[in-house]
Amino acid sequence: MEIHQKYDYIIVGGGTAGSVVAARLAENPNITVCLIEAGPTDDGNPDILSVKNWPNLLGTELDFNYSIEKQARGNSLIRHSRGRVLGGCSSHNSCIAFRAPDYDMDTWQQLGCEGWNARETKRYFANVFEKVYIEKNPAINPVSQAFLEAGQQAGFDLVTFNTEGEFRQGVGIFQLNTQNSIRQSSSQAYIHPILSSAKNLTVLTNTIVNKLVLDENNTAHAVETDTAIIAASREIVLCCGTFDTPKLLLLSGIGPPQHLHEIGIPVEVELAGVGEHLIDHPEGVIIWEAKQPVPAETTQYWEVGLFSNIFPASPIPDVMLHFGLVPFDSNTVPSGYPTAQHGFSMTPNVPRTKSEGVVRLRSADPKDAPMIDFRYFSDQEGYDEAILLAGMKLARKIANQPALKKWIKRELAPGIEVQNDQDLSEYARRTANTVYHPAGTCRMGPIHNPLTVVDAQLRVKGINHLRVADASIFPSMVSVNPCITCMMIGEKCADLLKRVWG
Hints:
single chain; alpha+beta; FAD/NAD(P)-binding domain; six-stranded antiparallel β-sheet; 12 helices
């Protein structure tokens, strides 16, 4: 195929970070930017824009809805929802908005990511909050209020999340990137306000990139779709997410040589870390039937939560607990547990998981979904399992407080007969879900580390003019919902490009 179009920059993936990168680069009227998104636009679609409707987007044509490989110690039935729409997962999630804790960002610096500590990323978070409206005190449901009171009765302080520089245990109301119940995704906040006026920004939706085109000097200079080759005179930025960014690199011959040989793809650049270091926030689920109907008023069903320290040596909270106004039974009913019309759930999760999985290709066909193996709860020291078990016990403790206990008819899953640690852990792992926060498969780090994929400037090792900006670069997991952190990465990536190219 001949080159059909040429731009200064190509951004592959119009998701949470990609929309930010494209919009910021397009602020310079003297350069041209092409943003390529596999799914449709979100603009004007009330099903997407109404944050309360987010559960109904799961498993639709707007969702890649990836399955995972069989898990030895976890739940093999987990489906990983990934937004197939402009705005990516920020157009598809529950809009819980957190600034990454200082501890987590300073950890990135300690892992060899120069310039990514809390002090130096502060301004990029500030840039996000200037663009993205955050509801700091959204109205909450009476049962959510009962959860807050129960948390305080259990000894937790009522806290305000996103207090700058402070991340401590406590119970509180989630801040949301919404305005008047309309989601403030990266596409809504960054792309749509400028699209009619930014003549230098081209957005191609429903367009899948099959591979990168490298020249003899290993310079990435174009991308190949089903119908065209689109060239970039400056740089290409991959923002396809934790599963599809490594998939695209592997399809392009960039990755572990042995795997590429097995699939039958010629090796262009040996890069052992591509697809490695897959991390997540795995969560357990406890469900209660309510004594009376749960009031229908809600912003997005998961309005409040709690952080707690399980291990005394932990510098910051090591369990996060979301409270849901629904019986979250998608992974319990298939295992034979009862459900109810009216109920609520708690989902304790492991904020800084130690288990690591892998993403690989199933075949050389770009249309095949990637092979995703999280290897949940496989860390040798048993840290993830210990946190999950403690979180399950904590959830029951909160439920047993007077404020919430008066709402409870019975525990549906696992049921009060499940009490000893072995049985409770087995239940938690086998019916576990994900908080939909995969990360780490193109990890950022020091250039000498053989498993590093991108350096601290987000440049892919061994390739010129190619960067990655999405959750796949996480060198370690952040302890909170990561959507705002991904937007921050987009802000910093755009700034790094501007420093080089002007």
